[in-house]
Amino acid sequence: MIEWKFKVKTIDLSTAGVKVAVVNRADAEDMDVHGMDRIEVTHNGKSITAVVDLTDTFVEPGTIGLFFEGYKSLGVTDGEFVRVFPVEKPVSVSYIRKKMDGIKLKREEIFQIINDLMEEKLTDVELSSFVAAAYMRGLDDDETVALTEAIVNSGETLNLKEKRVFDKHCIGGVPGNRTTMLIVPIVVSAGLVMPKTSSRAITSPAGTADTMEVLAPVALTKEELENVVNKAGGCIVWGGAVNLASADDKLIQIRHPLSLDPRGMLLASIMAKKKAVTATDVIIDIPIGEGAKIATRGEGLDLAEDFKNIGTKLGMNVKTLLTNGDHPIGRAVGPAIEAREILKILQGERISLELVEKSCQLAGILLEMGGKAERGKGRDLAYSLIKKGKAYEKMREIIELQGGDPDIKPSDIEIGPVSETITADKPGKIAHIDNKSISAIARAAGAPKDKEAGLYLLVDEGEKVKAGQPLFTIYAKTQRKVEQEIEVYEQTRPFRYEQIILEIG
Predict the structure, then answer these.
(1) Considering the domain boundaries, does residue 407 fall inside one?
(2) 204 or 213, greater pLDDT
(3) Residue 131: partners with Cβ closer than 8 Å, 6 or more residues away
(4) Which pLDDT score, from 0 to 100, does residue 441 have?
(5) I need a surface site. Which of 78, 278, 384, 495 has the fewest CB within 10 A?
(6) Can 281 be counted among the known catalytic residues?
(7) Active-site residue among 124, 249, 261, 460?
(8) Domain check: are 372 and 425 in the same one?
């Protein structure tokens, strides 16, 4: 095999993924390589596979530009020499093309795609093509199961003492829907095991991990997570800190900018995380309605059936619940404000009753699945575990084991020092509160990056309001952020009124 010798020019920039080598166009012609082709670069016994980027001027002939990932992996410095020779594209590229042509992929082909993804052999263009192909051509049950198992295989799995492990997942899209932080302490206080790995926010004002982080560290290692669960029975941690189902995070990074959520990839993404924590019994919350990810009951039923089918093939007992997702569930939106609300509920305050009801419904189903309650009695047991303080005591234990202060009080949690209350400009009945608008307002305040930022709703759907009555309070670090929130409110107008006719003369 013919090889070339090049002097290195280090480029102090990160590609955040696939390794890239910048080659002068004249050298590329000599080597018979083109843009996006692969080359192998070696130095002192180390080698990397890099994708070729062409230039006429950035590097001179005889010089190769290596970004941070490349020169760091090789241990090479500016001006040193490396050996270079062309290599073929990974075989998984042909499998991606096969899927684009509408041909069903075999199990080993899907595993090869995920393996090459993990070894950073595929470019963003190739991975985007895989996502697009899954979106346009679909993945059948066999492909979805294979993708789930390949994602699980890409990382580690938990090693827990218990054989039965419980878990839940919500497909998202509803502000204030912080049910996990109530469900985990409820279920675990009854004696079930629930190692909950949750996500940080991507497009929402807060993810469960963002809110839990107000109370305790969530970036635990696998060993630390296992220790918490083996002692307390459960945890609430950030999944991104644990090497579980690692390929899923990489696929999400590709899917997010494209705003594509292929059904098979959505199912595989969720079920892989459940499989990685060795879950045996799972409940899936599918919010439906205006402003939710799933608009209609029919779509929700189809997705629910898919979850149950895939769960069965993976050896899991999966139940689904279609829930009302056309408006915010809790009143608090934003990490710190949500954490305050959760602590108050666990301490017995009668607030955010819809959030409590939904959480107890979901927890109740898990309690029935785990044999802790008779069928139809799980919800009542869940309520009693809050009322008796057992769920709160379990949450305190989890907080302490994760490295937080178990004695933290709602009043200890700081929220934005600058606030402003928005009032109704006319009388009427609140017919609808728009999810996306509420999320946009809270994000304009700085959430989730600023944990103290967000808003608190003072009215519910169906409530009659008078002109001048408070609708919600905005919290932010600065007056400028509050003004930005008000601008978003004026643009989006999240409250839709039904006019109340008081009198006809």
Answers:
(1) no
(2) 213
(3) 251, 254, 255, 258, 260, 262, 265
(4) 95
(5) 78
(6) no
(7) 261
(8) no
